């Protein structure tokens, strides 16, 4: 192994003379160097051993990840099966991240991922020095967090009767008729948070309101505008069934968010706010009257009023709200997830960059007719590597998104996320624009063998394996 195989690309490598030859993985000496940037490290390999100088605990952890890469692919396996000595090049690696927020959203609402799968995803994030897991816990199609005060949220809201398969223009979606669901207990979530913290990953929970809320309405119909019983939604897309925006519903979600804050120590909690049709509000006399009583010019402004109540509540708990950029005007303290534009920066908001056209990893990876699920933009590995985030004091960082409407199990998540997530990790960690040809060569020669050792079923660069194409994944079978 050589220093050339490191991924993400390091800030600086100074090659030394000779090699370190050891029969067991070396145990480095670790010391603190406050002159290094946050999360930074200096990894020194000499013929006598390995030393780590780190700015902080995350920096020391990332140094060990770099050392593991230098030890070769077998070091990424679950147990030591290496034979013969380890040979490491002598030299010094100095490295630190470009952005403080290097995240990935994992949607467990559309398709539930059992706890073990979340642990594995966290391991893969840690191997790529990503440090924020944005956990999308609620949506129209499922409620995944236990709230003991409101047991029907999981008793009813965590299960749906089935799921759409396929997607236009790939044909009219069919319904699989197969119940789907699951949820995390309070203990499960505390365990996930602790597991992530050991890997220096912050879990940012999302409770999406006032749209994308039909699972909650199915559990408690009075949360909806009409008050009529609904089922947990079985299709994808934007949905007209939104929350009622009154004081009783606000109080309900205050209680939910207080519970969320008790589980998740993250300084940031996401309240969603995206894709909220106002059709039901406009046709409901009580909602129209409520908007008038508040002095609002129309019912559309109720979304901002509703979210502002929750933003203020989170601030009373010592937390900060994150909302998507189409949520409308919000208090300036709100962090904005910029998936459509960066206009929020002009209004003084801090932003996390997550543009749909660049880093939505559920989007298709080729236009080949066998590519599973023709979703969204065509975004290849090269496209993700070419993404150039904005810099500036209001940019906290960036995150990729793994939405799971069409990713119904960890194997499908692997296919969609990797190796594109490896390219994204390099974009948000490494400084300066990298060369794709050099990246691809490094990926194939050094990093794909690591993913193989980790058991990741990534998409091969030459195209999908036969078992990764339709009809072997949720999509329009060829015979339809």
TrEMBL record:
Catalytic activity: Hydrolysis of terminal non-reducing N-acetyl-D-hexosamine residues in N-acetyl-beta-D-hexosaminides
GO CC field: membrane
Catalytic residues (UniProt): 275 (proton donor)
Limits of the Glycoside hydrolase family 20 catalytic domain: 99-431
GO BP: carbohydrate metabolic process; glycosaminoglycan metabolic process
Pfam families, per the entry: Glyco_hydro_20, Glyco_hydro_20b
GO molecular function: beta-N-acetylhexosaminidase activity
Keyword Ion transport: no
Entry EC number(s): 3.2.1.52
Keyword vocabulary terms for this entry: Glycosidase, Hydrolase
Group of enzyme by EC: hydrolase
Keyword set includes Nucleotide-binding: no
Family: Belongs to the glycosyl hydrolase 20 family.
Protein name in UniProt: beta-N-acetylhexosaminidase
């Amino acid at each position: 192994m050589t220093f050339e195989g490191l991924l993400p690309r390091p800030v600086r490598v100074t090659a030394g003379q000779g090699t370190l030859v050891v029969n067991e993985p070396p145990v480095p000496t670790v010391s603190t160097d406050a002159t290094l940037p946050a999360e930074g490290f200096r990894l020194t390999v000499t013929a006598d051993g390995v030393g780590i100088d780190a700015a902080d605990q995350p920096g020391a952890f990332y140094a060990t990840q770099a050392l593991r890469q230098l030890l070769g692919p077998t070091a990424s396996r679950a147990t030591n099966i290496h034979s013969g000595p380890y040979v490491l090049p002598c030299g010094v690696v100095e490295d630190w991240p470009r952005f403080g927020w290097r995240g990935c959203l994992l949607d467990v609402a559309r398709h539930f991922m059992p706890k073990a799968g979340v642990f594995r995803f966290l391991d893969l994030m840690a191997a790529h020095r990503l440090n924020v897991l944005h956990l999308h816990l609620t949506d129209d199609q499922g409620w995944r967090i236990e709230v003991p005060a409101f047991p029907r949220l999981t008793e009813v809201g965590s299960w749906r009767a089935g799921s759409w398969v396929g997607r236009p223009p790939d044909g009219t979606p069919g319904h699989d008729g197969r119940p789907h669901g699951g949820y995390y207990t309070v203990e499960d979530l505390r365990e996930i948070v602790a597991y992530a913290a050991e890997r220096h990953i912050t879990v940012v929970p999302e409770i999406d309101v006032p749209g994308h809320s039909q699972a909650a309405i199915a559990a408690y119909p009075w949360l909806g505008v009409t008050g009529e019983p609904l089922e947990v939604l079985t299709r994808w897309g934007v949905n007209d069934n939104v929350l009622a925006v009154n004081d009783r519903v606000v109080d309900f979600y205050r209680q939910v968010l207080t519970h969320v804050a008790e589980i998740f120590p993250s300084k940031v909690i996401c309240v969603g706010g995206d894709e909220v049709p106002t059709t039901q509000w406009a046709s409901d006399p009580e909602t129209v009257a409520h908007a008038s009583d508040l002095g609002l010019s129309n019912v559309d402004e109720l979304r901002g009023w509703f979210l502002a109540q929750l933003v203020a509540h989170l601030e009373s708990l010592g937390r900060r709200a994150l909302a998507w950029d189409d949520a409308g005007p919000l208090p300036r303290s709100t962090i904005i997830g910029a998936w459509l534009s960066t206009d929020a920066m002009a209004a003084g908001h801090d932003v996390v960059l997550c543009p749909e056209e660049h880093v939505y990893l559920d989007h298709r990876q080729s236009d080949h007719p066998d590519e599973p699920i023709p979703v969204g933009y065509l975004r290849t590995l090269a496209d993700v590597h070419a993404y150039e985030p904005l810099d500036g004091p209001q940019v906290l960082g960036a995150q990729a998104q793994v939405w799971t409407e069409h990713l119904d199990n960890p194997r499908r998540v692997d296919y969609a996320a990797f190796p594109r997530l490896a390219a994204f990790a390099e974009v948000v960690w490494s400084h300066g624009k990298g060369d794709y040809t050099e990246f691809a060569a490094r990926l194939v020669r050094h990093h794909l063998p690591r993913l193989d050792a980790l058991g990741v079923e990534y998409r091969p660069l030459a195209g999908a394996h036969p078992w990764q194409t339709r009809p072997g994944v949720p999509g329009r079978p060829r015979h339809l």
